[in-house]
Specification:
Blueprint lengths: L14 H27 L7 H33 L20
Helix pairs in contact: 1-2
Amino acid sequence: MPSRGIEVVPLVVHPREAQVRLRLMLMALSVTLWALWVRFFTPDAVPGWTSIVLPMYFLGGVQILCIGVLGEYLGKAYRETKRRPRFFVEKTLGVGRLPDA
């Protein structure tokens, strides 16, 4: 069924993309926990370093998320504008034929 403007169906998330996003999220979480550990439990922390790095990582992640959503949307719009059929009918079996008399 062709789309009619804005769709109710959510953007498709492929399993491989979901794995990559999950790994990136876990890496960002580990860097955040490490920065907080250094800040609160070691004497080596530079004053102000954690308060600069953590918001920078957070805002960078939000930007990458927005770019990913925008890319999914543009990709879906591009596929729709090509107007290729979703499938090809190789042959019909008795549909639309008159019965033999």
